[in-house]
Known about the structure:
The complex is a heterodimer.
Chain A: E1 3-6, E2 10-12, E3 18-25, E4 34-39, E5 46-52, E6 57-60, E7 69-73, E8 78-83, E9 92-98, E10 108-112
Parallel strand pairs in A: 2-10
Antiparallel strand pairs in A: 1-3, 3-8, 4-5, 4-9, 5-6, 7-8, 9-10
Chain B: E1 3-6, E2 9-12, E3 18-24, E4 37-42, E5 49-53, E6 57-58, E7 66-71, E8 74-79, E9 88-94, E10 100-101, E11 105-109
Parallel strand pairs in B: 2-11
Antiparallel strand pairs in B: 1-3, 3-8, 4-5, 4-9, 5-6, 7-8, 9-10, 9-11
Amino acid sequence: EVQLVQSGAEVKKPGESLKISCKTSGYRFxxxxxxxxxxxxxxxxEWMGIIYPGDSDTRYSPSFQGQVTIxxxxxxxxxYLHWNSLKASDTAMYYCARNGGTQWGQGTLxxxxx
Amino acid sequence: VVMTxxxxxxxVTLGQPASISCxxxxxxxxxxxxxxxxxLHQRPGQPPRLLIYRISNRVSGxxxxxxGSGAGSDFTLRISRVEAExxxxxxxxxxxxxxxxxxxxRLEIK
Lengths: 114, 110
């Protein structure tokens, strides 16, 4: 069974850094694109970027280029989403998902507030 | 690729059909011949769940009252007889190019 299990909710202050994770199992991690989706409160879904763990090819939506970093650790079949300096506007639910939306993590709620 | 869904809200009577349209700003036919257009359903407080992939293929366990159709840049999700558990927001998504979603269509019971 394919599973994507995300790290827990986070509460951070503006300017702080953060890395959230998505641990996968049940499929060959290196053979499929996986990415991150943002859902702001009461809003729709937005793809932020995707990574191919096999060769670390990473692509970002223009809206998120330079704002976040997506990475993957093949040895533990885990994808990451990293911010260097959070803003209040980063408050949202973040999902990892395999490209095409075939499987989804449970979501990680990130709250950024002073 | 911009995905445009209509309607954005759809009040439906239980047992009646519902239909959601999704149009893409360019053809979704991939160079490998496949069209990577899917439909997702999201209930409040839950992650989205894939219902349909590659235009018309139902994911295992999805009731057969859900069907997808279309080609090129024009696609439709149909629910033959709406049930109470079908409420929520439906999104079309393409992964022929860098993935994108439609704005979402909220299905509610009249």
